[in-house]
Amino acid sequence: MPATRRSAWRLWLWALLAAPLLLLILFGTLVADCFCLPSEARALRNELIRSSGVEWQQQIALNADTLTLGAVRAGLSLVRLDPGARAAAQSVRTAGVGVYQLASGTPPPDRAAMLAAADSAMIAHGWDRAVGVMDGHDLVAVYVPKENISARRVKCCVMVFDGKEMVLVSARGNLDPLLQYALDQPDLCAQIQHLVQR
Amino acid sequence: MKKMIRYSLATAVLAAGVSINVLASPPSGQVDFGKFTPGDDSEFVEVQIKSNLLSLAAQLVEKQDPATAKLVRSVELIHVNVIGLTDANRADTVTHVRQIRHELETDGWERNVMVQQKNGEDVGVYTKTRGGEALAGLVVTVIEPKDEAVLVNIVGDIRPDQVAMLGEKLNIEPLKQIGAALKDATSKDAASKN
Q: Which strands sit side by side in the sheet containing A154-161, from one edge to the other?
């Protein structure tokens, strides 16, 4: 067998052996990615946990990326669905959610301090707080990127704490399908007017 | 020669510093309400809608209602603070809001509405005009001593006729009234400048 032919044969053999390994790594990365929050939500969680100085227990952390949600959308296109629900499903491009609970018997951390810590973490990542609400034991904060956002590329990150449990949600979406659905509603103007007057 | 270079360098640095400072200063209608202390177990709400979100809102209504989109685009910032009052923070918060009002009056803001009711409710509306035709900023302060203090700051290049038109269009009475009040404020300002 000539030398060049032998080396080509060896190359193919290596490729054949490496392919399943690479696929396994890729699959492992994708699976691991499903249990890992997006970077901004991770930064928010880390800062909140660090600054609170108390023990938190992770209940769940899930992340659905473009690929996963694309597959979900493709699957949903085959089933009969309420137009509103379909528009909502079509709008979400990526979504991550993390749920954390205070260890039992731990007193809830100071909400104002939590909000300040969340603000500093998000500002450092180029996000601004659009809404902050403290009421009783509850704390809600909504963050949006400082950069210009368009209807086709909207991002937001939400933190909710009820004194025991903290939920972090980060999502990116395209509002066009939802907007189209809203515009198709015949009594939209009346509904908006009613809402504003309230 | 060395001296001259040093002077020109110093002037350049100073000029750059001044221009950076000017660029960094907030829009003329923006008011820093400062920090408030939320009372224990009381409500505290802060909403800050900046130009990127307002631009998104304008994009969303553009096709359906270009006039509303134009009005939304003329706003640069909407800042709302609601501070629930408790025995722990009532005195400090009321003093803080009164201090803001005092600073607005000394900073050239015009007080358009001042209502003090028997139940203690105290409302103040302040405006800052831009060239006598548009508003650079609007501040609404409300003190309800038993419940809460509310502060609203709207910044932009707001045309009173646009606000009134939106009120007419959506048939929202308070918006109509605000539009009319703003028209009065800007026309008074224009008259006083003439």
A: A56-64, A92-102, A165-173, A154-161, A138-145, A127-135, B44-50, B75-84, B148-158, B134-144, B122-130, B110-116
Share of chain A above pLDDT 90, in %: 34
Q: Which residue has 């009321």 as its token pair?
A: B94
CA distance linking residue B111 with residue A117, whole number of Å: 37
B177 close contact with A: CB closer than 8 A: no
Residue A7, phi then psi, degrees to nearest 5: -70, -35
**Contact across the interface for B48 and A129, Cβ inside 8 Å:** yes
ipTM of the predicted structure?
0.73
Count of H helices and E strands in chain A? 7, 6
Q: How many CB atoms lie within 10 A of CB B169?
A: 15
Mutate to test the interface with A, among B36, B40, B49, B60 (most CBs of A within 10 A): B60
Q: What is the pLDDT of residues A87-105, one digit of tens each?
A: 888 899 999 999 999 998 8
